Amino acid sequence: MAATSQLPGLSSTGPGLAGAAASTGGEPRGRVPAPILRAFRARPSTYAVLLVVSALLFTPFVLMVSIALSSDRTTAAGAFTILPGEWNWQNFVDVFTTDLPTGRFLLNSVIIATFSALGQVLSSSLVGYAFARLRAPGKNAVFVVVIATMMIPAQITMIPQFVLFKELGWVNTFLPLIVPNFFTNAFNVFLVRQFVTRLSNEIDEAAQVDGLGYFGIYRRMILPMLTPVLIAIGIFTLTATWGDFMGPLIYLNNEEDMPLALGLQYMTSTTNDLQTPPWNLVMVGSIVLTLPMIAVYYLGQKYLYEMNLNGGSAGVK
Amino acid sequence: MTATLGEALGAVRDARRPGAAGRRPRRGAPRQRLTRRGRQEAGWFWLFISPWVIGFLAFLLGPMIASVWYSLTDWDSFTAPEFVGLDNYVRALTEDPIFWKALWNTLYYAAVSVPLGMAIGLYLANLLNKQVRFRKLWRTLIYLPTLVPLVATAMVFKMVLAPSGPLNDLLGVFGISGPQWLLDPNWVKPALVVLSVWGAGGATVLLLSAMNGIPREFYEAAEIDGAGPVRQFWAITFPQITPVLFFNLVMGLIGAFQIFSQVYILTGGGPNNSSQTVVPLLFREAFEFYHFGYASAIAWLLFVVIIGFTAIAFGTSRKWVFYETEVR
């Protein structure tokens, strides 16, 4: 790429910062910055469009904060403004002291998401390691089945699973939401398998010579090297279970068992027709629901990029 | 995730090939010992993958078989199921107007929201692929909505789409008096599309990383040949990123057919079933009316629709997805 950087008749115009050039053209440091090609030249209109689009996309966030800071009187009247006009920070305290157990909702979300992520990390690492390293007759056929299971939509198994969990007496417990995660899923198995396949075999062989069994190799050699992929799997599972609405809706009917995602919907539906839902508190709840996802994404971003899995759809599915 | 999809297909291909990669050389070992060790290794293999095997049997294969059986019965979950043959399927396809309405609404939603989201995502990715200042900031702002859990998104959009909400205020600036959105049978589906477009930034980030992988030489050559930015986009950028677009199309369609939370929270399928889609309908039949047999039949019909559209997407991919180079 660097070899072709000098083209006659093209001079560097516009915001031709060397840093910016490096991010697009892959120009090595210390060289003359490549001239900006016409396809990459930013015009004032580019900035205008980006500004308008960003403002539009950001408006719901501003509205969210504005409603969250509204007084009860404004909420009852429904007289919200896009930009915050009132600053009732007390709402952030009140949401935990209303008659609805919002603190409990939050705790439930944390419990369900944490154990689900733990289950996926444990089980996917075991299964993925075996598919990458151990030999057994029929292994490849089994792997084809693993991949094929990705195509089955959840709606097919939803009703029989409900019947199963009802028979087990697990309805109105967290178990139907947590336990299946300890039996892994195809996508995570696949991720771990690909990751282990890229690791050198020599480590295993050296460990084997030193007398480690297969479980020892997995536990002491492979597992420590799986950190990036396991963090990525942990993040996927956390975001999926944290935002999950349908699962809790099916299995959890008692107020005190609900995770926050379901609790928010419950907040808006419990009030009778004459009352307006406490939208200011619902928005506080929405912010509380959203912030951990943004935090998890930013803390884990590095690992997601490492896995080449950036841009998964955490929100819109 | 695009690279991963390609790898998934590659892995299946590898797995089918005898003597596939990932095997260690085992020359020199005596035959007898090898079999004993081999058997032991196979035993460990099955032990290690037992979580998946148990999960597969208990939570997937078993339920799938049960689901086929339920779909052939009339069952309210309290009394014994009664075998009715294909009645549930016949009822859905010929007698239940709400099923057809829900299916039509789902198709409408998928057909509008997926291409629109892709077009907007692509347009924004192309803007960010230029040498803009504060690129990281723009990218973050565009990606941020996809991090918001659906329930929170639905709550906010209930306010955004309120008759006197910000969206109608904005339209008012341009002299347009906005519709009632969620309360208007004609506008409730576009309202759901608006909500989905808010998350178009997910595609932007994927497409942007694909655009970064396009060799610069292509643009330099086009530049010398006198091609303008628009021509360069259609002749170079677009063909190079078609695999990512294809991935987005397939995943987007599958996701759109399964839309649930937005409909359930924002509209409940109303007004007058004008926003009822297949999964909320299935949910209502199953968990509100306890028609487990009928709901199972709907689930299989949805599966057929999803597989059908995925197959169509794969079928047309030969014509427009560019796979000649290593670029994925």
Automatic annotation (TrEMBL), chain A:
This is Multiple sugar transport system permease protein. The chain crosses the membrane at residues 47-69, 105-129, 141-164, 170-191, 222-242, 279-299. The keyword Cell membrane applies. Gene3D superfamilies: MetI-like. PANTHER family: ABC TRANSPORTER PERMEASE PROTEIN MG189-RELATED-RELATED, ABC TRANSPORTER PERMEASE PROTEIN YESQ-RELATED. Pfam families: BPD_transp_1 (PF00528). GO terms for biological process: transmembrane transport. Keywords: Cell membrane, Membrane, Sugar transport, Transmembrane, Transmembrane helix, Transport. SUPFAM superfamilies: MetI-like. InterPro entries: MetI-like, MetI-like_sf.
Automatic annotation (TrEMBL), chain B:
Residues 15-35 are annotated as: Disordered. The keyword Membrane applies. It comes from Cellulomonas marina. SUPFAM superfamilies: MetI-like (SSF161098). Gene3D superfamilies: MetI-like (1.10.3720.10). Pfam families: BPD_transp_1. Residues 103-313 form the ABC transmembrane type-1 domain. Its main location: membrane. Coiled coil: none annotated. One of its GO terms (cellular component) is plasma membrane. PROSITE patterns: ABC_TM1. It comes from the Bacteria. Residues 23-35 have a biased composition (Basic residues). It is a multi-pass membrane protein. The chain crosses the membrane at residues 43-70, 107-128, 140-161, 187-208, 244-265, 292-314. One of its GO terms (biological process) is transmembrane transport. Belongs to the binding-protein-dependent transport system permease family. This is Multiple sugar transport system permease protein.
